[in-house]
Amino acid sequence: MNIKLIVVGKTDDSHLTELIAQYTKRLSHYVNFSIEIIPDIKQTKNLSESKQKTKEGAQILSKVTPGDTLILLDEKGKQFSSVDFAAQLQKRMNSSIKQLVYVIGGPYGFSEEVYQKSQGKISLSMMTFSHQMIRLFFIEQLYRGFTILRNEPYHHR
Q1: Phi/psi of residue 73, each to 5°?
Q2: Other C-beta atoms within 10 Å of 98: how many?
Q3: Which residues pair with 119 in a beta bridge?
Q4: Rounded Cα–Cα distance for residues 19 and 64 (Å)
């Protein structure tokens, strides 16, 4: 199984970029993982929230192939403990999914088209975090999930 994380906009904090790279490298020992960055929409001052979400949504969906399983990181999604998230990963790996695609949307969330194409939503917290920090948190949780599945000492129960 491949896992791809699609994100809107670049991470401009060098500390976060370094940590994301560190956890991406760690994660590569367990799964074929990639991050795909969709550039920020230009001239958003002239766009309504809805139009911005629609433009971002079209770019997101252009990166998803028909056989992909699309999961959105969304504040209204289901919350998991780390152990339960690991179990979800295992369940998806057992179901012969070729590519699992997670998406972190732009500042206003997702377009209706993206919601319709998704096969699920997860929330990392009821709190609000910057889109840049969520990338690090999510990649760390993916790494943690795989260490849990391998019964490695990274996660303490």
Answers
A1: -85, 110
A2: 10
A3: none
A4: 26
**3-state class (DSSP) for residue 86:** helix
Q: DSSP label at 118? A: -
Residue pair 115/72 in contact (Cβ under 8 Å)? The answer is yes
**Helix-then-strand count for the chain, H and E:** 5, 5
pLDDT (tens place) for every residue of the chain, 157 residues total: 999 999 999 888 999 999 999 999 999 999 999 999 998 887 777 788 899 999 999 999 999 999 999 999 999 999 999 999 999 999 999 998 999 999 999 888 999 999 999 999 999 999 988 888 999 999 999 999 999 999 999 988 7
Closest CA to 59 of 134, 110, 130, 10: 110
Of the CA atoms within 13 Å of residue 105, those in its CB half-sphere come to 28
Question: Residue 144: which of 154, 136, 135 has the closest Cα?
Answer: 154
Place of tokens 């490298």: 25
Find the distance separating the first CA and the last CA of the chain, reported in whole Å.
27
The rounded distance, in Å, linking the Cα atoms of 129 and 142 is 18
* Whole-angstrom distance, CA of residue 128 vs CA of residue 139: 17
Tell me which residue has tokens 């998806």. 92
